[in-house]
Amino acid sequence: MLYWAPNGAHACRCTKRQGGGEMNMTTQDRHETEKLLTPAEVAALFRVDPKTVTRWAKAGKLTSIRTLGGHRRYRESEVRDLLGGGH
Amino acid sequence: MLYWAPNGAHACRCTKRQGGGEMNMTTQDRHETEKLLTPAEVAALFRVDPKTVTRWAKAGKLTSIRTLGGHRRYRESEVRDLLGGGH
DNA sequence: ATAGATTTGGGTAATTCGGGCG
DNA sequence: AATGTCCGAATTACCCAAATCT
């Protein structure tokens, strides 16, 4: 009578990124191991209306991933680049 | 001692699928070697609530495999296709 | 067999979508 | 051209207790 748990909870995170470092990912963001942000979160970071974030996505200024229901999700790394990359 | 990996090999190979080239699999993967994801894992990838993933499965938007106890498991390949394929 | 985490099921708020207007 | 707001409809998030998984 012992635990039989050959497999854990699948905490597979593949290549965990180090904080702050700017890792050059593949040209196209093919890695789905990216943290995603909701429209409200991105809007709060930029201090704009969520609708404005949606317009940025529609204009191609921001990469958007869609849920199966049509809601948009945004890549955290891209947002942080745009926020901190004030050039 | 019997080692059986119910949820897949958990090797986290992170194979880099190079530009657009998709494997020539038949329509569906008939082997049981397909890695399955738990609702929480799929939810984390899409940045949604696990219950939302359940709704997608009920609506037929996502293929679900049921455990003998009724819990759902999802095909990793399908999830990845939906994440990156639907630009 | 016990424990802790996860999932399921329903129900009800909170977001988001899309279009159009100012 | 770029934002913010109003509207209805759709999607998603959080609440609970019971069942299932590791």
Throw out a few tags for this protein.
3 helices; 87 residues; 3 strands; alpha+beta; homodimer; DNA-binding
Question: What does this entry look like structurally?
Answer:
Chains A, B: InterPro entries: BldC-like (IPR048048), DNA-bd_dom_put_sf (IPR009061), HTH_17 (IPR041657), SinI_DNA-bd (IPR010093). Chains A, B: Pfam families: HTH_17. Chains A, B: This is Helix-turn-helix domain-containing protein. Chain A is an alpha+beta fold and 87 residues long. The radius of gyration of chain A is 17 Å and the shape is globular. In chain A, 30% of the residues lie in helices and 10% in strands. In chain A, strands 1-3-2 form a 3-stranded antiparallel β-sheet. Chain A binds chain B through residues 6-10, 12-15, 26, 28-33, 35-38, 65-69, 71, 73, and chain B through 3-7, 10, 12, 14, 16-17, 19, 37-38, 41, 45-48, 52, 56, 61-62, 79-80, 82-84, 86. The first copy, chain A, binds a DNA duplex (22 and 22 nucleotides) through residues 1, 3-9, 38-40, 48-52, 54-55, 67-72.
